[in-house]
Amino acid sequence: MIGRLNHVAIAVPDLAAAAALYRDTLGADVGAPQDEPEHGVTVVFITLPNTKIELLHPLGENSPIAGFLEKNPAGGIHHICYEVEDIRAARDRLLEKGARVLGSGQPKIGAHGKPVLFLHPRDFTGTLIELEQA
């Protein structure tokens, strides 16, 4: 059901410093910051030959990333994202298997302009999983 790894998301307390670290120290291709108000984050994508890194920073008072950074002030891996061909079919199959989909269960449009869903970390060995329709 799951396809390729789309990205690994890292919550960061200082978006500019994290982007500079990847660009200047690691020599990575770092994109421009983009606000995602529906998800409460500002993101920067780092393009690698085989996947992407998504740097996440809180946007607004109700950002889920703000809570994550309170518990992890230095930042850290927030979630991993896998591609699926049909997000609704994937959701239905996961629900049949007993997995929990976060939120309303309806896909939202993610940072790449494609439908996404998040799966409860307790169902996946403590890892928050994002599914993105390819």
CATH topology: 2,3-Dihydroxybiphenyl 1,2-Dioxygenase, domain 1
The overall strand count is: 9
CATH architecture: Roll
Our count of domains comes out at: 1
Shape verdict: globular
Report the top-level CATH class.
Alpha Beta
Order of helix and strand elements from N to C terminus = EHEEEEHEHEEE
According to CATH, the homologous superfamily is: 2,3-Dihydroxybiphenyl 1,2-Dioxygenase, domain 1
Helix-and-strand structural type:
alpha+beta
Specify Rg, calculated over alpha carbons: 15 Å
Helical segment count: 3
Structure description:
With 134 residues, the protein is α+β, with helices and mostly antiparallel strands. The chain has one domain: 2,3-Dihydroxybiphenyl 1,2-Dioxygenase, domain 1. The chain contains 3 helices and 9 strands. It has helices at residues 15-25, 64-71, 87-96, and strands at residues 5-11, 29-30, 34-36, 41-47, 52-58, 76-84, 108-109, 115-119, 129-133. Strands 1, 2, 3, 4, 5, 6, 7, 8 and 9 form a 9-stranded mixed β-sheet that branches. The longest helix has 11 residues, at 15-25. It is globular and about 45 Å long. The termini are close together.
